[in-house]
Amino acid sequence: MTGIRQETPTAKTFTLTLPRPCSFWPGQHLVVRLTAPDGYRAQRSYSIASAPSNSAELDITVEILQGGEVSGFLNEAVEVGDKLDVRGPIGGHFAWNLQPALGVGGGSGVVPLMSMLRHARELDRPDLFRVVVSVRRPEDLYYSAEIQGAEASIVYTRTVPDGHVRPPGRLMTRDLASALDGDRDVYVCGSTAFCDAATRLVAAAGVPDERIRVERFGFSG
């Protein structure tokens, strides 16, 4: 562990330095496994937030869940310099293949989409990936300073920041329409309830089922 940053009041970004650089696709995840002195093990999957690079450093952003075994330990006990048991990168279904795409994320579901957005920007191809993020309040927005830009649209459902044109309210089909120009794959990520609702909106906007990929985040912690 080489870095820890408070991302929101309920989430931290952890910078991991692996023994050697590894290749991965945006949208893949790592498995973090903890082993107690009595041999009890708990493991959870966390999406990679970094863009692919030749570096051995990877960022994961972890939502701290009440009663969560792994997220609670990472939040309360892990310090810079500690070693973690990490496996991966893993996952192919949600990996972005660099075709024009739109990411639709709810809350912590923005993490793998941020990897995609960062990669598109580093390729100097911001047109390849756009993102629509739904959060309750400004303080809940992950990567708030970095995510802003022409490729990103933020939907606040409870409270909006000063100067934000869209009034607070749940995600609607019209929020997706301007970002769905041309043929774009759509990557939907968040809680089960968010993914179900967002997938219906994407389908209503005319995107065929075979072009929609969904990654549901659980709440086991």
SSE topology sketch:
Blueprint: E1 3-8, E2 11-17, E3 29-35, E4 41-47, E5 57-63, H1 69-76, E6 85-90, E7 101-106, H2 110-122, E8 129-135, H3 144-147, E9 152-156, H4 173-177, E10 185-190, H5 192-204, E11 212-216
Parallel strand pairs: 7-8, 7-10, 8-9, 10-11
Antiparallel strand pairs: 1-2, 2-5, 3-4, 3-6
Pattern of helices and strands? EEEEEHEEHEHEHEHE
Largest sheet, in brief, is: 5 strands, parallel
Work out the radius of gyration.
17 Å
Shape: globular
Residue windows where pLDDT falls under 50 for at least 5 positions:
none
Beta-strand proportion:
25-35%
N- to C-terminal distance: 20 Å
Mean pLDDT: 93
Summary?
This protein has 221 residues and is of the alpha/beta class. Helices cover 19% and strands 31% of the residues.
Walk me through the structure.
It is built from 5 helices and 11 strands. The protein is α/β, with parallel strands linked by helices and 221 residues long.
Record keyword descriptors for this entry.
19% helix; three-stranded antiparallel sheet; 221 residues; 11 strands
